[in-house]
Specification:
This protein is mostly beta strands and 430 residues long. 6% of the residues lie in helices and 54% in strands. The protein is built from 5 helices and 22 strands. It has a 14-stranded antiparallel β-barrel with strand order 1-4-5-7-8-9-10-13-14-17-18-19-20-22. The longest helix has 7 residues, at 10-16. The chain is elongated, with a radius of gyration of 23 Å.
Length: 430
């Protein structure tokens, strides 16, 4: 049944596809703040230096004393380069190239607004893209039966509120309204249907979308005037995706494929995005220097099974998963040089949730990664601050050994890295 694999992993691929471009482990997108980018997002649940704390810890809003609007843009340039080590179809070498660089540059914006209501209560709203990318290997690469193009867009709207029950303690809560839209394609070999052993490629295209919601909450505690701790939690979000699966078959096998039940149809499936938690510290060493650190956990072991349902029998399938929970650790430093300039730097380490080469796919050639980041802020006036940051992400070379239900084995090694540049405008209102 040469097409059975074509849609089997549709919803798995939808979310796995993100990892080539987003830069937290698995498929999470952490680029939600330009000031945070400059310190590799170290200590983000405790720093609370601008309105982007809405995403990282809404309790940090009580640190803001003025109306504030942030507009940021991240330019993400990933590299995902595959080298073959014997890919084959039931022992016969797979034709095609290495796919070149599968990553495509992505622009990831974010927007935040915060407004104090009184000395103890602050409200705000954030809009960002917690997941998303475009990757494309091209039609003729060796792994085309596993993946060709992945195009995923998300929009997350996050209204939040924070208040101070005591002088030292702040509590925050936010609601996350999240939209997902995707398009995925891969090739399918119709050689068997054409009556020849040669590869005879068609294509499968999946599209689906959904609205869903979750929440985030947090607290900060000011131990002393110089030391603050932050705790934050983001809930799981369950998406019930609906869309269409479409087949494009070569002209010489279209009739045979239709007779065997390979036709377009509706698809649906449920995917739960995992919850995460973070603990962070921020310490002001003196008026010029501050340090921050954090440890963050993500419950990736929710990915035990992914199921796709359809009114077309050929589109129904189940795939078992064995992802593992992962940790992220960060350490940052900030220096306030004068009234005009401040500088920051950070380093972080992200664990991959993918346990081995057999669980890795070309849509998510994820691996452990190390961040190195630098940033600066220019205080243009009392009401305007300009922020910029750069980060390079070193990713560990990793193996892949992915065999599909038709015997197509993608066997090779990935060399990945990412460069990120971010700019931001902070505008304060009296």
């Amino acid at each position: 049944m040469p097409m059975s694999r074509a849609t089997q992993f549709g919803f798995y691929f939808m979310f796995g596809a993100v990892s080539n471009s987003v830069m937290a482990a698995g498929y999470a997108l952490i680029e939600q703040s330009i000031t945070g980018l400059g310190r590799a997002f170290s200590g983000s649940a405790a720093v609370a230096d601008d309105a982007s704390t809405i995403f990282f810890n809404p309790a940090g809003l009580t640190n803001l004393t003025r109306k504030e609007m942030n507009m940021g843009l991240n330019l993400i340039a990933p590299r995902a380069e595959f080298s073959d080590r014997g890919s084959n179809a039931n022992g016969i070498p797979l034709t095609g190239g290495d796919g070149s660089n599968a990553g495509e540059m992505a622009a990831v914006p974010n927007f935040y607004y915060a407004q104090p209501l009184n000395e103890k209560t602050v409200v705000g709203i954030g809009v960002g893209a917690p997941y998303g990318l475009v990757t494309d290997y091209g039609d003729s690469w060796q792994g085309r039966y596993h993946a060709i193009r992945s195009d995923l867009l998300t929009v997350n709207i996050n209204p939040s509120i924070a208040f101070k029950p005591t002088e030292k303690l702040s509590l925050g809560f936010g609601v996350n309204l999240q939209y997902i839209d995707l398009e995925l394609t891969q090739a399918a070999n119709f050689g068997v249907l054409s009556g020849t052993p040669q590869q005879n490629d068609g294509r499968v295209r999946l599209t689906a979308d959904d609205w869903s919601w979750g929440y985030n909450l947090g607290m900060t505690y000011q131990f002393t005037e110089t030391t603050r701790m932050g705790l934050s939690y983001r809930s799981k979000i369950t998406h019930d995706l609906t869309g269409e699966g479409e087949f494009r078959t070569p002209p010489n096998v279209s009739a045979s494929a239709t007779a065997l039940g390979f036709r377009d149809g509706d698809i649906n499936g449920r995917v739960t995005l995992p919850e995460s938690a973070s603990i962070a510290l921020h310490h002001q060493l003196n008026p010029k220097w501050a340090v921050m650190a954090d440890a963050s956990w993500t419950r990736w072991n929710r990915f035990e099974e992914l199921r796709i349902n359809s009114d077309v029998q050929r589109l129904n399938s189940v795939k078992e998963e064995d992802w593992e929970n992962s940790m992220r650790y960060g350490l940052g430093l900030e220096y306030r040089a004068n009234d005009r300039w401040s500088w920051r730097a950070g380093i972080a380490y992200d664990e991959t949730p993918i346990p081995n080469a057999q669980r890795r796919t070309p849509r998510i050639p994820d691996s452990d990664r190390t961040w190195l980041a630098f940033g600066a802020s220019y205080y243009y006036s009392d009401n305007i601050i300009l922020d910029a940051a750069y980060s390079h992400i070193f990713m560990k070379d990793t193996n892949i050994d992915d065999t599909d239900a038709n015997g197509n084995q993608l066997l090779g090694r990935y060399k990945n890295s990412v460069d990120i540049v971010g700019v931001q405008l902070r505008w304060f209102f009296d």
